[in-house]
């Protein structure tokens, strides 16, 4: 919708068929609004191109502020990514970190509220739809981390070499059946990790199955032990190191020894993998370089928005530790 005037919260309310206070609550406290209502409100926001803010003139003014949207700030990958960004972005800009809590509705609400007040945006492992992200990019310069959408600059990991190394390791230790403990259903990253695992396992005649979606946290990792029990898998690949740490605790509680009874590997290669009760074999690259390249892309994008849409792809490799061993005989 483009009528030449600024879209207001009242326009959104009329389109969604709800009260203005419900729209306001959906943006400020999405946890207090039902999922069905949030869906209707966000669809109206996207359709109308609504951006919260005082005036168009104010929203176009230079604020010297950059928003950095992450899925969960407690995940140690973000310490290195943010360090790489801060060290390589002009000091005259202030980064504001938005924690989505692994929730697409909260991520959308965070960005809608802050978008008029920032000059640019970094979106890391976003759970939003392509159309939502494209709409954000139309309003402010945006760089994606670990997400690929045509027309938007991005920084990605090429995980295929690292996944191939992990499959070689499993094969060398006699494993034939593997299980991938999936990340959230809406996670783009989980999807591409699964496709890489499938492809590289098939090349080596390894069988790999995928669990139901689990959240990327310790509690869900602990609960994921039940997804493994009853399978033939002698090796497990977790969505990330945090989830794998919970998985290790759950296996230990169940009396399962790692790696004697089952081998465990994961993604991201963070400090969580190093200090786990059994140090984790993990696929990862330089998260600092991710932040550095994101800073460079956004800096260039702020200087000149043009048709050049770079995509930077960084390597990943398998970091071998104690959690992968020989497949058990039985």
TrEMBL record:
Keyword Transcription regulation in record: yes
Residue ranges annotated for the HTH lacI-type domain, each copy included: 7-63
GO molecular function: DNA-binding transcription factor activity; transcription cis-regulatory region binding
Keywords attached to this entry: DNA-binding, Repressor, Transcription, Transcription regulation
CDD domains listed in its UniProt record: HTH_LacI, PBP1_LacI_sugar_binding-like
Superkingdom in the source lineage: Bacteria
InterPro entries, per database record: HTH_LacI (IPR000843), LacI/GalR-like_sensor (IPR046335), Lambda_DNA-bd_dom_sf (IPR010982), Peripla_BP_I (IPR028082)
Pfam family, one: Peripla_BP_3
UniProt keyword annotation of Transcription regulation present: yes
SMART domains for this protein: HTH_LACI (SM00354)
Protein name: Catabolite control protein
Organism: Trueperella bialowiezensis
């Amino acid at each position: 919708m483009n009528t030449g005037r600024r879209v207001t919260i009242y326009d959104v309310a009329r389109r969604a068929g709800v009260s203005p206070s419900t729209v306001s609550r959906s943006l400020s406290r999405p946890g207090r609004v039902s999922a069905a209502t949030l869906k209707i409100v966000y669809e109206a926001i996207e359709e109308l191109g609504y951006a919260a803010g005082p005036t168009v003139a104010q929203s176009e003014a230079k604020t010297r502020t950059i928003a950095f949207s992450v899925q969960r700030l407690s995940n140690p990958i973000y310490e290195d990514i943010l360090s790489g960004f801060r060290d390589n972005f002009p000091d005259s800009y202030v980064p504001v970190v938005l924690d989505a809590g692994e929730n697409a509705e909260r991520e959308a609400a965070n960005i809608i509220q802050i978008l008029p007040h920032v000059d640019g945006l970094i979106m890391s492992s976003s759970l939003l739809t392509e159309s939502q992200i494209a709409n954000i990019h139309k309003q402010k310069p945006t760089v994606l981390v670990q997400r690929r959408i045509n027309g938007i600059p991005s920084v990605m990991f090429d995980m295929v070499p690292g996944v191939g190394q992990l499959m070689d390791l499993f094969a060398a230790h006699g494993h034939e059946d593997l299980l991938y403990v999936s990340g959230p259903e809406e996670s783009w990253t989980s999807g591409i990790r699964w496709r890489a695992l499938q492809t590289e396992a098939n090349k080596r005649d390894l069988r790999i199955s995928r669990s139901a979606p689990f959240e990327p946290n310790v509690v869900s990792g602990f609960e994921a032990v039940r997804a493994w029990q009853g399978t033939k898998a002698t090796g497990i690949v977790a969505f990330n190191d945090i989830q794998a740490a919970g998985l290790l605790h759950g296996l230990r509680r169940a009396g399962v020894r790692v790696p004697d009874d089952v081998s465990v590997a994961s993604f991201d290669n963070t400090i969580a993998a190093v200090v786990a009760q059994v140090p984790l074999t993990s696929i990862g690259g330089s998260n600092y370089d991710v932040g550095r390249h994101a800073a460079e892309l956004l800096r260039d994008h702020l200087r000149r928005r043009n048709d050049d849409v770079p995509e930077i792809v960084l390597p990943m490799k398998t970091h071998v530790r104690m959690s992968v061993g020989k497949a058990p005989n039985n």
